[in-house]
Structures are given as structure tokens and as C-alpha cells.
Amino acid sequence: MSEKEMNNQRAIYALSDLRMYASSHSLDAIDYAIEVLQKLENAGIKNPLESLKSEEK
Fold first, then answer.
1. Does residue 52 sit within a domain?
2. How buried is 36 (Cβ within 10 angstroms: 0-12 exposed, 13-18 middle, 19+ buried)?
3. Are 10 and 4 contacting, i.e. CB atoms less than 8 angstroms apart?
4. For residue 35, how many other CB atoms are within 10 A of its CB?
5. What are the tens digits of pLDDT across the range 2-43?
6. Is residue 2 included in any domain, yes or no?
7. Is residue 3 part of a domain?
8. Which of the four pLDDT bands, split at 50, 70 and 90, describes residue 56?
9. What is the pLDDT of residue 47?
10. Which sign, positive or negative, has the C-alpha torsion 36, 42, 5, 12?
């Protein structure tokens, strides 16, 4: 990962940028991913992958 830790907001921003260049058959998947990340963010889950790491232990 880059210097800054990835979180929902950064992922949503990046996916929104990628959406502009995606093919038409990829748009539904990108929109779905954005919606899922927004729902996680709204539910207070800021770093979903970090919460999965604690479950794996």
C-alpha cells in the first residue's frame, strides 16, 4: 500500500476517478463497489480490511 493507509473515502475517490475511464460493462461493478464502501462508511466501518484481520486471529 502507499504511504497513506487506504480507507473507504480514499477508495471511493479512486473508484470514482476510474469510473470515467472504465468500459461500459465495468460500470455496474464500479458503482456497486462505491455503494458498498459508502454503506460501510455510513455504518462507521472506516477500514473494513483492518476489521477482517482481527477476525482471522
1. yes
2. middle
3. yes
4. 11
5. 446 889 999 999 999 999 999 999 999 999 999 999 999 999
6. no
7. no
8. low
9. 85
10. positive
- Residue that has been written with the C-alpha cell 482481527 in this structure: 54
Please check whether residue 28 lies inside any domain of the structure.
Answer: yes
Torsion, Cα of 19, 25, 26, 31 (10° steps):
70
DSSP assigned state of 30:
H
Asked if 11 contacts 50 with a C-beta cutoff of 8 angstroms, the reply is no
Range of the domain at 52: 8-56
Q: Which three cell numbers stand for residue 55?
A: 477476525
The phi-psi region of residue 41 (left if phi > 0; otherwise alpha if psi is between -120 and 50; otherwise beta) is alpha
Number of domains, the chain: 1
